[in-house]
Amino acid sequence: MKILLAEPRGFCAGVDRAIAIVERALIVHGAPIYVRHEIVHNKHVVSTLREKGSIFVNEVSEVPDGSVVVFSAHGVPKAVEEEARSRDLIIYDATCPLVTKVHAEVSKMHRGGYQIVMIGHRGHPEVEGTVGQVPSAIEVVEKPKQVWDLKVEDPEKVSYVSQTTISYDDARRVIDELKKRFPKVVEPKKADICYATQNRQDAVKALAKEVDLVLVVGSKSSSNSNRLREVAEGAGAKAYLLDDAEEIDSTWFEGVENVGITAGASAPEILVEEIVDRLRDLGADEVRTLGGTPEDVKFPLPKGLWQKDVDNAAKIPSAQISAPFGSIRMDFQDGQLSRVSLSTQPCETNLDQYGNHPAVKALQKYLSGDIAAVKGWKPSVGGTAFRQKVWKVISEIEPGETMTYGALAEKIHSGPRAVGGACGDNPLPIFVPCHRVVGKGNSGGFNHKAEDVSIKLWLLNHEKHYSGASSE
């Protein structure tokens, strides 16, 4: 049996941002913090955040006065936000920026006197949040035939928006019907279905043509995951939606020669890795990735949760080292190196009590030209099993050498975007040399200084120059 992985798959930028908001709010404010509704629709993500101190509630009224509350990635009605502000809650809005765009659209349409049709699934939190921006002016439509049941005051003053996670094909059918009934219907300047939803649906369509069976990793409550299953079935493949490897039924694979795997935008990559391992146990002997649309979108975190805010709140002991490209900050926890931050901003060296720490000495040797001094360093660092796998391979790249994101992804049977995300989440650059992972024909990004890859280029040139040096 052969395994074919869809690309892209899994976490989108909006989900990455929402989870980071909860995790950083826990550091800045301490547990507990409250989250209205599931931050994203995935039971594993919710369970992990609950273990860290998040309390998930259905309504803001359940949150004690003065507490921290996070709005989920799906967005909230205006009334919910107003209630939270009236009770002096500390609010962090994790609404996906692409959903916020839809909120702005309906507000503008309403001001223009338009009756608004929202194409989406009734009862879904995103739909409730969007309708809640102007509840008196929006009608929800799920199917094309419902367009003809709409009661409108002025057929020439009708507009529409879409839920960001619905099937593109389903939305297109409703839009076509709207244009038949209302030839002057006003549409958004830019399509509302998000880039990640569209990319994953396109990828699973291509995947379904190559395999006998498609496994979609995602929770039953996830709209975009359900749509992926439907799209796979619509393309002619049998498909199952499952939360994790424990839900696999070995009878699914009787007579199956090729199985495809994709994941919804709220499903962690580690779940895909576990399913691949389970299929290997069932006899799968080959894994390859089907190329798709590359993604490099990142959404900024809200003010108050930037890295400097997290560091200040945690009162992390640290050492500062002046470097030719700027400066290096080394954070310590219980005497162990926990984070390395690189900056183009210069600083004076301040080692505090860490002047004799092995990590500090190794880094100073590295900067002096002994580029092998950090090789083999085995710091204690957290991270998912998938990230640990990526970082282990990165640590094996020799000084002076590089590996492309694609080659690394192929080595661990994953996708370039997931690998890129793990590189960006690496807390110990240089020690875990993610700068040695490059793009095909270019240096690639460097999330430790996202707006300036000059640090990455300096590190690569430094290692190339001293590639003959060795640590004693």
UniProtKB/TrEMBL annotation:
- InterPro entries cross-referenced by the UniProt entry: LytB/IspH (IPR003451), MethylDNA_cys_MeTrfase_AS (IPR001497), MethylDNA_cys_MeTrfase_DNA-bd (IPR014048), MethylDNA_cys_MeTrfase_DNAb (IPR036217), WH-like_DNA-bd_sf (IPR036388)
Q: Which residues bind [4Fe-4S] cluster?
A: C12, C96, C194
Please give the cofactor(s) recorded in the UniProt entry for this protein. Answer: [4Fe-4S] cluster
User: Which UniProt keyword terms apply here?
Assistant: 4Fe-4S, DNA damage, DNA repair, Iron, Iron-sulfur, Isoprene biosynthesis, Metal-binding, Methyltransferase, Oxidoreductase, Transferase
- Could you tell me which residue ranges the Methylated-DNA-[protein]-cysteine S-methyltransferase DNA binding domain spans? 385-464
Q: Known Pfam families for this protein?
A: DNA_binding_1, LYTB
Provide the binding site for isopentenyl diphosphate.
H41, H74, H124, S222, S223, N224, S266
Catalytic site: E126 (proton donor)
Question: A GO biological process this protein is involved in?
Answer: isopentenyl diphosphate biosynthetic process, methylerythritol 4-phosphate pathway
Its Enzyme Commission number(s) read 1.17.7.4
Listed under catalytic activity are: a 4-O-methyl-thymidine in DNA + L-cysteinyl-[protein] = a thymidine in DNA + S-methyl-L-cysteinyl-[protein]; dimethylallyl diphosphate + 2 oxidized [2Fe-2S]-[ferredoxin] + H2O = (2E)-4-hydroxy-3-methylbut-2-enyl diphosphate + 2 reduced [2Fe-2S]-[ferredoxin] + 2 H(+); a 6-O-methyl-2'-deoxyguanosine in DNA + L-cysteinyl-[protein] = S-methyl-L-cysteinyl-[protein] + a 2'-deoxyguanosine in DNA; isopentenyl diphosphate + 2 oxidized [2Fe-2S]-[ferredoxin] + H2O = (2E)-4-hydroxy-3-methylbut-2-enyl diphosphate + 2 reduced [2Fe-2S]-[ferredoxin] + 2 H(+)
Q: Where does dimethylallyl diphosphate bind?
A: H41, H74, H124, S222, S223, N224, S266
Binding positions ((2E)-4-hydroxy-3-methylbut-2-enyl diphosphate): H41, H74, H124, T164, S222, S223, N224, S266
Pathway field of the UniProt record reads: Isoprenoid biosynthesis; dimethylallyl diphosphate biosynthesis; dimethylallyl diphosphate from (2E)-4-hydroxy-3-methylbutenyl diphosphate: step 1/1; Isoprenoid biosynthesis; isopentenyl diphosphate biosynthesis via DXP pathway; isopentenyl diphosphate from 1-deoxy-D-xylulose 5-phosphate: step 6/6
Task: Give the cofactor note text.
Answer: Binds 1 [4Fe-4S] cluster per subunit.
Q: Which GO terms describe its molecular function?
A: 4 iron, 4 sulfur cluster binding; 4-hydroxy-3-methylbut-2-enyl diphosphate reductase activity; metal ion binding; methylated-DNA-[protein]-cysteine S-methyltransferase activity
Please report which protein family the annotation says this sequence is part of: Belongs to the IspH family.
Function statement: Catalyzes the conversion of 1-hydroxy-2-methyl-2-(E)-butenyl 4-diphosphate (HMBPP) into a mixture of isopentenyl diphosphate (IPP) and dimethylallyl diphosphate (DMAPP). Acts in the terminal step of the DOXP/MEP pathway for isoprenoid precursor biosynthesis.
Full protein name:
4-hydroxy-3-methylbut-2-enyl diphosphate reductase
Which organism was this protein described from? Parasutterella muris
